[in-house]
Amino acid sequence: MASLFPETDDMIWTDVSEPEMVEGSGAVFGRSWRYDFEVGEFVMSPTRKVTPVDEKEAWVIWCEKAIRTPRYRHLIYSRDYGSELEELIGSDYDHALQESEIRRMVTETLLADARTESVDQFLFTWEGEACHFSCQITSIRDETEIIESVVI
Q1: Which InterPro entries match (predicted)?
Q2: pTM, two decimal places
Q3: Cβ partners under 8 Å of residue 29, min gap 6
Q4: Angstrom distances, CA of residue 102 to CA of 48, 49, 94
Q5: Do residues 36 and 61 lie in contact, with contact meaning Cβ atoms separated by under 8 Å?
Q6: Which pLDDT does position 21 carry in this prediction?
Q7: Which of 81, 141, 84, 142 is nearest to 111 (CA)?
């Protein structure tokens, strides 16, 4: 009987690499797909396939998604995932207190992931009641990236 899965010389089989684990940290750097947060969709290639990203960009996308996802709202996520930035919307706190809370909430959100070493260098810009902020994130591999977000 002919094999259901024939192998010929012109077939090239590649192994899918296992996610890399950083020794002693419990952190797994894996793959992900490019996501456009402004459009709210995965980025597609010209052949209509979801575009993969490297391990660093996968971590950065995780960080951005964690900041944008309200904590405790979606049952699919653990209670450690997401941020509580929505609590600041419409609050009567002065700018200094709101900036302090944004620093605390974002840092707490991102340090929940074992891949994140530190969150610092916050910069705040106010436009009316909207607060634009950016911060630098550093992975346990010493890779850094700047994340920008808005709290209204």
Answers
A1: Sheath_initiator (IPR020288)
A2: 0.77
A3: 19, 20, 21, 22, 55, 56, 58, 59, 115, 141
A4: 38, 36, 12
A5: no
A6: 54
A7: 81
Taking only the tens place, the pLDDT of each residue in 34-79 is 998 888 899 998 998 999 999 999 999 999 999 998 988 888 888 8
Q: What is the pLDDT of residue 26?
A: 62
The proportion of the chain whose per-residue pLDDT surpasses 70, expressed as a percent, equals 82
**CA 8 from centre of chain:** 41
Q: Which two tokens stand for residue 131?
A: 């607060």
Structure tokens at 48: 């209509």
- Among the CATH numbers 3.10.450.40, 3.40.250.10, 2.40.50.140, 3.30.465.10, which is that of 25-151? 3.10.450.40
